[in-house]
Amino acid sequence: MNTAPSSPKATRDRAATERAILDAAKQVLVEQGFTCFGVNAIARAAGCDKQLIYRYYGGLDGLVDALGTELSHLFGEQLEFESSRPLENYGEFVEQMLLALLRTFRASDLLLRIAAWEILEPSPITRRLAETRGAALMHWVRSMRGDLEPPEEMDFGAINAILIAAVQHLVLSAHATGGFGGVPLDSDADWKRIEAGLVAMVRAIYPPSSLGGS
User: Boundaries of each HTH tetR-type domain copy (predicted)?
Assistant: First the structure.
């Protein structure tokens, strides 16, 4: 039995092929959607034999898991990048969370498309990608929130779900039609207006005086 370790060149070639396959998977998703997301289409886009997808990832399910892990890392890194200032109360945490989500979805066409497909084309693949993205978001929430607490009398779970849904829908509408409800969403100035509106809403719902802020 040959137990000799792989050569450095073989290791590099495998790493390059795995990278090409992952990049091709993202390319197929962006350009063709989940209806065309399969081993054959990904292999064509990657310029490799489809057997390599089975060899390196165990098939489409393993590739989806690897893609979900990569996207969750990118999602988490983008959230971290958008979240820098220290937080003094729960309202500031919600404010920063919404602004970070808004900017993160705007920055990634792929994340935005996946969010749309989760609603329009639910499938085992979209559910698995949603779960990995949700785990990344929850990790970020726990690290950012710390011991900041919302007002006890509020159903903050429902309130925050509505606000997050509004953010996601606005970005999806901007991508599809360039605006929402007569409000243009084309330029940075348009989005500054939306961000100011979000901040005003959060501060009205979670006023600093009710949260121990100054």
Answer: 15-75
Element (H, E) at 183: strand 183-184
| Sequence ranges of the domains in the chain | 1-58, 66-210
In contact, 90 and 148? CB cutoff 8 Å: yes
Contact 171, 102 (CB under 8 A): yes
Bridge partners of 183, per DSSP, are 180
CATH of 1-58, one of 1.10.418.10, 1.10.10.60, 1.10.357.10, 2.120.10.30: 1.10.10.60
Segment 28-83, tens digit of pLDDT: 988 888 788 899 999 999 999 999 999 999 999 899 888 888 888 877 777 777 76
